[in-house]
């Protein structure tokens, strides 16, 4: 592999869940937010926003929703949002009705692209934070209760929460998680799905299971964790909770995912 400081930063990223209790200076915050704004945006619609959670009581509410106490301790906490609300205001100001069946910013395509934009912005901020020697953890756990999160953050129509991001000075140094063999995630020209490819996946995952199990055993000596394939099977067997269902939650926010 070739390398430089950016590549080294990305290769050494790890989730940090314990932070030094130090506030952020305004210049660092401005830097991280400006970097996020420079991420790619589909059709230049800028259809994402981020809510910085500063109020301690609201941080505690985020930790309750995420079921992770360390969320409340994060010196810097954001919730990234797919945002067509701002664009709806702009459209209406130009005489475009937003309540018609032909309204183009509430359908499934724009919903998915707005989510993509939010993730790209979050990743840019995360990478910038790591390059400054900070630590981060991405908080998919905030989607444990989407209606509760929408209510807590007062998210208006045509918005939808995507992910959270906690940032701070690391107060831990966890080991790097093992990664899958590249051959399981990178393919040439077509997705391999014949019988030979299926058998190859099973064989390679078996070896990956061993490395993942060793990683978790070293990290949690008092609480062994299942191998990777067992974790997949366990999650696959779980019935999805109603609060995780995208269509009803997105519909309540004004999106029309059947279009």
UniProtKB/TrEMBL annotation:
Asked if Oxidoreductase is a keyword of the record, the answer is yes
Question: What's the superkingdom here?
Answer: Bacteria
The protein's UniProt keywords, in alphabetical order, are:
Flavoprotein, FMN, NADP, Oxidoreductase
Give the InterPro entries listed for this entry: Flavin_OxRdtase_Frp, Nitroreductase, Nitroreductase-like
Domain Nitroreductase, chain residue ranges per copy: 11-169
Secreted recorded as keyword? no
User: Which is an annotated Pfam family here?
Assistant: Nitroreductase
Q: Which Gene3D superfamilies match?
A: NADH Oxidase
> What parts of the sequence cross the membrane?
none
| Similarity annotation | Belongs to the flavin oxidoreductase frp family.
Q: What is this protein called?
A: Nitroreductase
Its lineage opens with: Bacteria, Bacillati, Actinomycetota, Actinomycetes, Bifidobacteriales
């Amino acid at each position: 592999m070739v390398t430089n400081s950016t590549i080294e930063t990305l290769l050494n990223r790890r989730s940090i869940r314990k932070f030094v209790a130090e506030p952020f200076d305004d210049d660092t915050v401005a830097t991280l937010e400006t970097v996020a704004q420079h991420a790619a945006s589909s059709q230049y619609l800028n259809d994402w926003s981020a809510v910085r959670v500063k109020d301690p009581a609201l941080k505690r509410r985020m930790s309750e929703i995420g079921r992770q106490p360390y969320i409340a301790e994060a010196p810097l906490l954001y919730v990234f949002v797919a945002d067509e609300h701002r664009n709806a205001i702009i459209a209406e100001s130009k005489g475009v009705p937003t309540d018609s069946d032909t309204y183009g910013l509430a359908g499934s395509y724009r919903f998915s692209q707005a989510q993509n934009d939010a993730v790209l912005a979050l990743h840019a901020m995360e990478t910038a934070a790591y390059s400054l020697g900070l630590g981060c953890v991405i908080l998919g756990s905030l989607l444990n209760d989407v209606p509760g999160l929408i209510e807590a953050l007062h998210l208006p129509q045509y918005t939808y929460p995507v992910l959270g991001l906690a940032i701070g000075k690391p107060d831990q140094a966890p080991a790097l998680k093992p990664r899958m063999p590249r051959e399981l995630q990178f393919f040439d020209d077509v997705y391999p799905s014949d019988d030979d490819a299926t058998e190859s996946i099973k064989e390679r995952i078996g070896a990956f299971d061993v490395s993942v199990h060793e990683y978790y055993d070293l990290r949690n000596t008092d609480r062994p964790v299942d191998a990777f394939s067992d974790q997949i099977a366990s999650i696959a067997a779980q019935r999805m909770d109603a609060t995780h269902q995208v269509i009803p939650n997105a519909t309540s926010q004004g999106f029309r995912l059947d279009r």
